[in-house]
Design a protein that fits this description.
2 copies of one chain form a homodimer. Chain A folds into 2 domains: 40 residues, no CATH class; 94 residues, ERV/ALR sulfhydryl oxidase domain (Four Helix Bundle (Hemerythrin (Met), subunit A), Up-down Bundle), CATH 1.20.120.310. In chain A, helix 3 runs antiparallel to helix 6 and helix 4 packs antiparallel against helix 5. Chain A is mostly helical. The longest helix of chain A is centred in the middle third of the chain and has 18 residues. The interface between A and B is large, with 53 and 53 residues. Chains A, B: It is found in: Mitochondrion intermembrane space.
């Protein structure tokens, strides 16, 4: 991050920069990323007029040349990436065996270890790595894993100031649905 | 799957059952899942009247008791799970180092191996396992990995009868965006 780059985005969140000094797409909201890269202008949250009314995110909905279906879609921002990845992780726990084999337990542990190194939002990955160091994944059964992951998600919810999910209901939210 | 359960859903796709004989949520579309579990009725695609006009998916948008924000949302179906997981995987490739270390290469290989065992849609996981047996992950650089994953995604697009994505553009779609 060079000295003339903003430290805070339109949403009021701190701007995260990559090691090469460029703003990180998967670590910031799309709005903040576009603000810090000069694609949109506006005043940060908390200034006299509201951010919503002073900026505009241009639509990039044109088709890619040569394609009939693919639009020029932006890469996922930190929020879309988070939502998507939780979808995958909770669904994975929902399909984990009720009685996993030693190999399945070992692979699930390895998975979370590697995941904490490769998750594209670096600061999220660091937080997750710290979380699993202090709260080892519980892989002895589907229900254990589902609840452990729900707790891990709640720790993130807490950081974001969001209500915690009732982990007694993880199974309904991610496995059976609400009708059964 | 017992003999009185349908083999085909409203979308015309084959219904996938779990080992316990129950329909698999993460392997079928929500529409087909609701059809096969009797939550909606309707005629399969290809019958005299169109499926769209003869069935109705009930809204499950009520809040969970005790929560101010969480709705009774259905677990992801095969399509939502697929879209979410590709978001995660491509973003991961976009953040993979340009010059990865031996450990990073090894972890990426392990990751895909484990991923092919734990992906919640079983038949998708089996297909992916076969794919990586025949097309080992290319983990020597970010661009190699990004293109390899784009090819893997295209193989799925092909199976679904969907247009292939131009893999020369993987970097714009998943890393830089289209403005640069």
């Amino acid at each position: 991050m060079s000295s003339n780059q903003p430290s805070e985005g339109l949403t009021g969140r701190k701007i995260i920069y990559d090691e090469d000094g460029k703003p990180c797409r998967s670590c910031n909201t799309l709005e903040d990323f576009k603000f810090v890269t000069g694609k949109i202008t506006g005043k940060p949250v908390g200034s006299t007029s509201s951010a919503k009314s002073t900026h505009h995110i241009p639509k990039t909905s044109k088709l890619i040349p040569g394609s009939k279906i693919y639009e020029k879609q932006d890469p996922p921002d930190v929020n879309e990436l988070g939502k998507s990845t939780w979808n995958f992780l909770h669904s994975m726990a929902a399909k984990y065996p009720v009685n996993p084999s030693s190999q399945q337990k070992s692979e699930m542990n390895q998975f979370f270890n590697i995941f904490s190194h490769i998750y594209p939002c670096n600061w999220c990955a660091d937080d997750f790595e710290k979380y699993i160091r202090e709260n080892a994944p519980r892989v002895n059964s589907r229900d254990e894993l589902g609840r452990w992951l729900c707790d891990a998600h709640n720790q993130v919810n807490e950081k974001l100031g969001k209500e915690k999910f009732n982990c007694n209901l993880w199974d309904k939210r991610w496995r059976t649905g609400w009708d059964e």
